[in-house]
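Box S2. Input/output pair 1.
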Amino acid sequence: MQMSLSVILLLRNREPAVTQMVRRAVDVVRSVGAKGRPFELLAVDQTSVDNTLSLLSVLHARLPELRILQDVRQGMAVIEAARAARGDRWLIADRLVDPELMKWGLHQLENGKRAAIVPGEILAVEAKLGAQVLGNLSGGLVSAQQAVDHELTARGQRPAWSPAPDRGVADRALLFVRQHLGWVGLSQLDRPLGT
């Protein structure tokens, strides 16, 4: 049976937040009207050295929709997710994200956009476009956002964009660095603060 949605969580040493990330993702999917359509929650763990995997195992026992990819090399999470995701639409996050941003991204896809981006927060994308663009991409979420934007721009299209929440000077500086890592060949280092 084809999945309607894959929510993809890119994880590395997210022990303090992983339980809330999973619960929030499930709540968002259910609140946007999954209406019994199957979905999956794909947790891609990039060789965490904390208890992220242990917590995911406990959550997996309670959530049949949760699938776990473990021991993924750093910088390869997007590729592995693109190869493993089963949904018609993907929602990708690498940190604890405001549920309203996730809902906004999913609504953009429902309303005909091929992709929706909140810089450094989420990427919502049609599976066909995601597989084509992200299936060979090293790096993390921001690299994936840039690749999808570049591909759509080359086709004369644009993704839906929403400004990132103002999280302060440190987060803005980190987002700036993450956006430029690919330009200097370091896209494998694209990950949120604290990982």
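Box S3. Input/output pair 2.
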Amino acid sequence: MPKRPTSPAELPKSVPVFPLSGALLLPYSHRPLNIFEPRYIEMVDAALRGDRLIGLIQPEDTSEESPKGRAPLQSVGCLGRLTHFEESGDGRYFIILEGVTRFRLMHELTVLTPYRQCVISAEGYEADFSRNHGEEAVDRVRFVKMMRDYAEFANFELNWEEIESTGTADLVNFCCMVSPYGAAEKQVLLEANTLEERAETLIAMTEYEMARGGSDGAAPLN
């Protein structure tokens, strides 16, 4: 299996991209995906034959989950490494992408493949290659209090033993990925400059939801 890139210099100049509204991937986190559209089945096949890298990025128009054609894309996405796949009898895939680094979309290529391919740059995202970068600046006590308050607010249980054993960076990124917020909020969390900023942004979103009493019907973290 091709190894995980460890710096921007090890990234390919272009990657296949999977436009998916509301789906957040962050470095070292894992995103399960069910792949059933023929164009994306072909994309996964190509990734398995190659470097196993796929860019997950949101379309600017969030009204379609997986937009047809060449809908404009956000300027920032996250590169994922395909670390697990299962193929069903009807040719569908269940895959898991492990986040490698955020990237800026430089431009889209004109290609013959049914899936889209883009030139990317990870310049400015060097810290994404270090799993724990920036976690010392995060107020973990405050972040965990937010989790506790939200669990009580939304009436669900958390595995506190697992939380205690999870590193701060992994905890923040996981909570951001499974948070119940929409595509625009997920993009803000993705583009946060630092881990501390991402944590504080999620705390602010959650406190705002709890203050409103959950009137928008958001689902709980899980």
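Caption for Box S3: Helices lie at 38-49, 140-154, 160-164, 168-178, 183-191, 195-212. Residues 215-220 have pLDDT under 50 and may be disordered.
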